[in-house]
Amino acid sequence: MRQSINPVINGKTWDTDCAILSFPMMLLISNKHICCSCVKRLSSGTVNVFNRAAKKRHRDLMAKLENIETYEYLRMEMAERLTDRLADIARQFDRALDLGCGRGYLSSMLDPDDVNEFYQCDLSSRLLDRAIPSTINRTKSCHIDEERIEFEKDFFNLVLTCGSLHWVNDLPGLMHRVMRTLVPDGVFLGSMLGGDTLFELRTAIQLAEQELENGFGPHVSPMVNMPDMGRLLHQAGFKMITVDVDEICVRYPDMRDLMADLCKMGEASCTWNKKPSLRRDTIVLAATKYREMYGNEDSIPATFQTINFIGWKPHPSQPKAKPRGSAEISFIDQFRQEAAKNDTVKDS
After folding, report:
1. What is the pLDDT of residue 254?
2. Which residues of 86-120 are buried (b: 16+ CB within 10 A; e: fewer)?
3. What's the fold here for domain 2-323?
4. How much of the chain, in percent, has pLDDT values that exceed 90?
5. Which residue in 308, 172, 161 sits closest to 232, CA to CA?
6. Which pTM was predicted?
7. Average pLDDT for residues 277-281, to the nearest whole number?
8. 242: closest CA among 89, 42, 23, 39?
9. Which of 164-178, 237-251, 333-347 has the lowest average pLDDT?
10. Which of 12, 21, 57, 146 could form a disulfide with 99 if both were Cys (CB 3.0 to 4.6 A apart)?
């Protein structure tokens, strides 16, 4: 599926004509390999790639922007797509939770008839203070790190997340905590940035650093790929799992405008021991290579990938696959019957 959105950069609207997605600045140089110097390990054994305190500062700085709406086009687009998916579930939810809500993008788009009570939590209290008005009358904002949520067991019927899980260190632990807080037959529906996000930016900076500095630095923000997301949900105990990938391609005047926008979105890198900055000549060369390889005289594309997923907490009422070997007719016989019917129709 290919769709586009129109961001406003420096007061000017730029057309988008590619696919569906979203993400940060000089942070995504490699999504395949993690530099060992960028990884810490918590006492619990969890790999600690991201500095959550730094990410909180990034979001707090974003909350100070007077024109904050200018830089929310990706989160708003992702939220709109997620609410469309939620509308396909024909049921009303008593309690719902939004993990990493930002300024409450989802709460501003939900149908008030679908949710009775809505909780939204985020790492930044300043973003919550500037929350967009919610369509749900009973909306509660909670200043909680989405990586360490602790709610009652069997409390929520629905857990949502949109555009924040790519900064979580302990994704397996988060999945188990979400499973615990969901009621039986509750649903976990979300969208997060995937591994192919900003591949154009990663490639351009890699080539420039290799040429000028004889090697590229650890501008690393490792992200989950689609198969990994399915495995994480399955390991946490979710059933009836569905995972798919979308892309959003946004066009910018120049690579520098893209990088500046990503910082103002609160998406700058927060990996441990990351390279503090890029050399000026490296940025100039990277911008040139970016335009030569992917752009044109007017603009450059930036591709953002979103991984969309849904999983259900087990319940006896859910459909179950029949035991292996219980089929009464083989697929081969079924195909032969269909082929015979088609031949008969053609002959007549």
Report:
1. 94
2. beeeeeebebbbbbbbbbbbbbbbbeeebbebbbb
3. Rossmann fold (3.40.50)
4. 63
5. 172
6. 0.80
7. 86
8. 89
9. 333-347
10. 146
